[in-house]
Amino acid sequence: MIDERDELIERVAGALKPLPQQNARAMAQILATVRARHAQAPSRLTLVLEWMRQPTVSVASAGLLAAAALAIGFVTRGALSTPDERVLPTAASPSASVPAIAAANAPNEVRAMPVPITFDAAGAKSVSIVGDFNDWDSTASPLTRFGANGPWTATVKVMPGRHLYAFMVDGKLVVDPRAPHTRDLDFGGDASVLMVNQP
Question: How many domains, in total, are found in the chain?
Fold first, then answer.
């Protein structure tokens, strides 16, 4: 059989000769540094992160998490308070605890906010504001003119959130030129955007 040797194979074989001998002192320093780092105790954060990276949760861990979630839920709902701390309804008034609950929730209650509205329409005979906060009813929130030729004004109560509105000027819908506009998906056409924040 003819011994065929490719020149490219010979060059690759020559390049793959054993690497030069390593510096034993440098290798010892690198290994000592690695051992020292692994010898340090990991922080609690590292342990928690390593635990969270584990793909499985044991039955004991799942039970512990469920018990913790239930305890937090009971504490936040007030179910773990002592019997004398709770308001119990009497036979005469079965809803005696309702005012106490309503009074406790009053600061967090979401209420309609008064919003001052102004619109310049010097030649208009009637102006009202219509929007999703008053069911687009042109008679619900009429504006009154300030002075003989001044702006039209009103104060409307609007719940906190994002609302669409427009002005009804002499029977025609007009968007507010001072507010951002968007497409009204319910009626088509443009509408103005009103953002109301709760204090």
Answer: 1
